[in-house]
Amino acid sequence: METVALIDYGSGNLRSPAKALERAAAGCHASFQVLVTSDADAVRKADRVVLPAVGAFADCKRGLSEVPGMQLMAEGGREYGVTEGLGWIKGEVVKLEPADPTLKIPHMGWNELDIRREHPVLAGLRERAHAYFVHSYRFAVERPEDVIASADYGGPFAAVVGRDNLVGTQFHPEKSQETGLALVANFLTWRV
């Protein structure tokens, strides 16, 4: 049985992402133990690691020196001041500023994914799949080839980024119903 470590960095409720991982594993008939942990040794030993999308860039980075999700893969961010990221994917996290001033921030709701390139975690997603977003900042990715899918909210933004064995989503897979569960199942069965 493989282990998926869901990192608990003390910044939010992890029940929803843990349940999504369990449902996706059952749906793809994969044998995974979901371990919610803040123990660095357990994370190192895990077969897969998930950084849930709860909390803010600066709070989580400063509080634990662990990464809360896609945005911390960036070189830096500007949420709650300038914060250094991990630099795994070139780019910066900046305020979401839609061209249409009537659009509200934070962006909360369903958006269509525009798949830019093939990737195993998006395999089998239906064309124009929708995902659920809640965010006020976006990852301004420097290299277009690192954007796997985008969405639009008064202008395009990176919805899924990835390189090598790393993938991050701006949306909440655990709240994105069929699309999210398919992505999580693909992640669990993905072989690099």
Indicate the topology.
Elements: E1 2-7, H1 15-27, E2 32-37, H2 40-45, E3 48-50, H3 57-64, E4 76-77, E5 83-84, E6 91-95, E7 107-112, E8 114-115, E9 130-135, E10 137-141, E11 147-152, E12 156-163, E13 166-169, H4 177-189
Parallel strand pairs: 1-2, 1-3, 4-6
Antiparallel strand pairs: 4-5, 6-10, 7-9, 8-11, 11-12, 12-13
Describe it.
The chain is α/β, with parallel strands linked by helices and 192 residues long. The protein has one domain (2-189): 3-Layer(aba) Sandwich (Rossmann fold), CATH 3.40.50.880. It contains four helices and 13 strands. It has helices at 15-27, 40-45, 57-64, 177-189, and strands at residues 2-7, 32-37, 48-50, 76-77, 83-84, 91-95, 107-112, 114-115, 130-135, 137-141, 147-152, 156-163, 166-169. A four-stranded mixed beta sheet has the order 5-4-6-10, covered by helices on one side. Strands 8-11-12-13 form a four-stranded antiparallel beta sheet, with no helix packed on it. Strand 4 (76-77) and strand 5 form a beta hairpin. Helix 1 (15-27) packs across helix 4 (177-189). The longest helix has 13 residues, at 15-27. The radius of gyration is 16 Å and the shape is globular. The two termini are 18 Å apart. The model is unreliable at 57-67 (pLDDT under 50).
